[in-house]
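anyone seen this seq b4? input:
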Amino acid sequence: MINSSMLSVALARIAAYTAMTSDELCSADGALGDGDLGITVSKGFTEAAAASLPNDLGLAFLEAAKAFQRVSSSSYGTLVATGFMAAAKLTKGKTAIEAGEISSLVEAARDAMIQRGKGQLGDKTVLDGMDAIARALAGKPPAEMVEAAMAAAAATVEDYRDKPNKLGRARMFGEKSIGLVDPGQLALLRITEGLRG
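predicted toks r here
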């Protein structure tokens, strides 16, 4: 079962790990954007990890969303907060969920992020990674979920490396973005790696 205490632990692990990978993410973002993605991700998860989460899992996800948005108002920060809010809607009033429900939460987050960001799958963005993770988690036993999510996120980074970015600031680089990793996809990979603790 997944409860708000476990969510707090996960947020703390991600915060610690993304703090260590912040420079890498900023560098990747600097090649296609404004170079602050690592700071956005690290500050956002640090703030979310510091939040006092209620037992109601839906309200806990909502608190995480508000905390992230407070310090990360960039487009990526907004998308992460949107994903948390989508999970909040599905878990409202519950103190715990089965691990098997996580794939549905990722799907809901993906769909909400697509709607908010006006993107679509195949644009070479974090959305592609979210989609891959949602599919990878379906039917997986709890003990294999983190590794499955990491593998899906890593495969997405490599699968899209040689494709052009079609959304956001990176799209302005057009053909020059071919051969470069998408910063948002890389950030999602580092986030999933952080879950290992």
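DSSP finds nine helices and two strands in the chain. The chain has a mean pLDDT of 93. kinda curious what u guys think
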